[in-house]
């Protein structure tokens, strides 16, 4: 009797175990290829898939704590707070690629963001965003737009489908009318 019970149970459990061990496991089938990336979170180091943001408008920003544009954290947080319920997610990627302006550890960066700008938008571990060492997500963003970040606080805006990507250089502040118009357009687009 136990054997008859265990065999059907094994038939249900084994395929689930195989799926969990497979590359890309847990990645929803409707996740755009661009978002099939996983990075450690800044605060806890736990792996987080960008697929959790599928169907959202993403504003991806490479950040630095000691840059002339660092005050943009304030505007990014305000933008996120204002529009997150409408589908905007600001995503930060600290980088030390430009001027060595992000020398700290993940903990130091997380503390700085929280204590100085009360950042609540998602942030990932320090990474490279330009050149030969750029992470695969940033390489894909640069390829799709033809523009690689030239400095800290470069912005990529990704539509809900993960297909359209726009690039905005560091001088474009979060409250810039052109950026805000494109964000509004992407938010208004059908899901």
From TrEMBL:
Biological-process GO terms, alphabetical: cellular response to oxidative stress
By which gene is this protein encoded? gpx
Highest taxon, organism lineage: Bacteria
Which GO MF term does the entry hold, naming one? peroxidase activity
Keywords on record: Oxidoreductase, Peroxidase, Signal
Record's protein name: Glutathione peroxidase
- Give the signal peptide, or none: 1-21
InterPro entries given in the database record = Glutathione_peroxidase, GPX_AS, Thioredoxin-like_sf
- The answer to whether keyword Signal applies is yes
One Pfam family, please name it.
Answer: GSHPx
Q: Which family does it belong to?
A: Belongs to the glutathione peroxidase family.
The record ties this protein, via CDD domains, to: GSH_Peroxidase
């Amino acid at each position: 009797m136990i054997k008859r019970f265990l065999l059907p149970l094994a038939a249900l459990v084994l395929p689930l175990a195989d799926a969990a061990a497979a590359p890309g496991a847990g990645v929803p089938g409707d996740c755009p290829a661009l978002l099939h990336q996983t990075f450690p979170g800044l605060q806890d180091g736990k792996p987080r898939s960008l697929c959790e943001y599928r169907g959202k408008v993403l504003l991806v920003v490479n950040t630095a704590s000691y840059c002339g544009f660092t005050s943009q954290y304030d505007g990014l947080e305000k933008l996120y707070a204002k529009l997150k319920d409408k589908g905007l997610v600001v995503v930060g990627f600290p980088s030390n690629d430009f001027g060595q302006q992000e020398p700290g550890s993940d903990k130091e960066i997380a503390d700085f963001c929280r204590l100085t700008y009360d950042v609540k938008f998602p942030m990932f571990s320090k990474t490279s965003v330009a050149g030969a060492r750029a992470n695969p997500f940033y390489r894909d963003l640069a390829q799709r737009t033809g523009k690689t970040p030239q400095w800290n606080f470069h912005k990529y805006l990704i539509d809900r489908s993960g297909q359209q990507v726009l690039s905005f250089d560091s001088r474009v502040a979060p409250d810039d009318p052109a950026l805000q118009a494109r964000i509004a357009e992407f938010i208004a687009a059908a899901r």
